Every structure is written in structure tokens, then in C-alpha cells.
Amino acid sequence: MVSLASVEDIASKIDHNSLHAAVHIEDNKKGEQIILYTESKLVNRESMIEKIRQLKKSELLLPKIINNVAEVPVLPTGKINYRKLVETANNENGAKE
Known about the structure:
The structure is a single chain. The protein is of the alpha+beta class. The chain has 3 helices and 3 strands; from the N terminus they run H-E-E-H-E-H. A 3-stranded mixed sheet has the order 1-2-3.
């Protein structure tokens, strides 16, 4: 299992001014897939690969899907609404929770 916090940390190193949230959903082939939601236009597959290599981290930290969104959903407390993101990821990718 890959640390989702590590995925978010790598995205933050690319653009520390934007909000990033990583979730995982079931994948019939590999067990799970990581999906990164980011408010940044700078975070994409190429920039993630480059930063992962620069930091000498495992490419297992590379999300399968990177979704650039206008706003990452947050709770009234200001924390990221991971439940909503997992629901969105499952709906977009046809997986079940």
C-alpha cells in the first residue's frame, strides 16, 4: 500500500500554493489505484514523474489519474473532504466503495 500523504507531499513540492488530495479506489487488476485531485495547473503526470525521480522516490507514488479541479472539497472545519473525493472517484471510474 502506498502512502497517500507521500503522494500529496510530492504534489505540494511542485506547487505549495495549491491544495492537493490523494485517494485510492479498488482496481480489479492491481488491487487499488491512486487518484490525485489538485487545484494546480502545474501538477500533471510529467511534473509528478520528474519530481519523483528528483527526490529518488518509488514510481509507485505516481497516481494513475490526476484530476485538475477548480476546488478540492473541504469540510466546514477546513479539512479536506476525503469521503466526497472517494465517492467522486468511484463514480467517475465505475468502481465500488
